[in-house]
Amino acid sequence: MVNDSSELSGLQQQAKTRQNIVEEITRKFAAEDEGLKHALKAAKQAGLPEIQISPIQGKFLQLLAVACNAQKILEIGSLGGYSGIWLARALPANGHFITLEINPTHAELVRNAFAQAGVSDRAEVRVGNALDLLPLLEHEAPFDLIFIDADKPPYPQYLDWALRLSRPGSIIVADNTIRSGKGFEEPQDEGMAGIVAFNNRIASDPRLISLDLAMDDDYTDGFAISVVRQ
Ligand code: DHB
Ligand code: MG
């Protein structure tokens, strides 16, 4: 039909406009330096999936870290160290960034990426299952910002730990909470069950003020952002 094709070209135009906006914002506010580029290249060479956050999301994490005057940041799930570099760079010189990684080979890759990016003085990788490592962090709490980006089924448990390891004013961010809208539907697998439960929890927990924001490259996935209330 005539209307279908004009509607389609309108949608294509919109998608193109959005893509241009992402590119312009990235160029102006979130350009990658050699350290970040090295982390991406090394992760790709090691065969890691290319599912790291976008540059805009990295800059957004930095903005949140500075907004809450973060001195201590915790990340659950390192992948190739890309988000860790963004986060560690938002810290003051005496700040501390801890990232939890289950895969020892990936952890070594991440340490190397941190060294290349010049953040080894403040960024530490701990190897193990996050649910085993989190209880050991209680004496290092509270963390000012906690970024959850690991396996999806335990997201609600990670939220429990984030609440336990935070303080009023801490910011809790979780990646992949939208998933093209599946984050709000009846879950079809364990991963989505974790994410749907996470969204339900942060939307209703009186200790938090929360919002899901679509902010990946095509606005179909994004972050859940929660602030721990005073
Ligand atoms: C997957 C995990 C992620 O953290 C992500 O950002 C994208 C995809 C995944 O497991 O498929
Ligand atoms: Mg992710």
Spell out the helices and strands N to C. Answer: HHHEHEHEHEHEHEE
Q: How many distinct beta strands?
A: 7
| Gyration radius, rounded | 18 Å
Backbone structural class? alpha/beta
The description of the largest β-sheet is:
7 strands, mixed
Topology:
Elements (H helix, E strand, L loop, with lengths): L1 H28 L4 H12 L9 H13 L4 E5 L5 H8 L6 E6 L2 H13 L6 E5 L2 H4 L11 E4 L6 H10 L6 E5 L14 H15 L3 E7 L7 E7 L2
Parallel strand pairs: 1-2, 1-4, 2-3, 4-5
Antiparallel strand pairs: 5-7, 6-7
Helix pairs in contact: 2-5, 3-4
Bound molecules: 3,4-dihydroxybenzoic acid and magnesium ion.
Overall description:
It is a single chain. The chain has 230 residues and is an alpha/beta fold. It is built from eight helices and seven strands. Strands 3-2-1-4-5-7-6 form a seven-stranded mixed β-sheet, sandwiched between helices. It is globular. It starts with a helix and ends with a strand. The mean pLDDT is 97. It binds 3,4-dihydroxybenzoic acid and magnesium ion (MG).
Give structural attributes:
single chain; 230 residues; alpha/beta; 7-stranded mixed sheet; 8 helices; binds 3,4-dihydroxybenzoic acid; binds magnesium ion
Task: Write a brief structural summary.
The chain contains 8 helices and 7 strands.
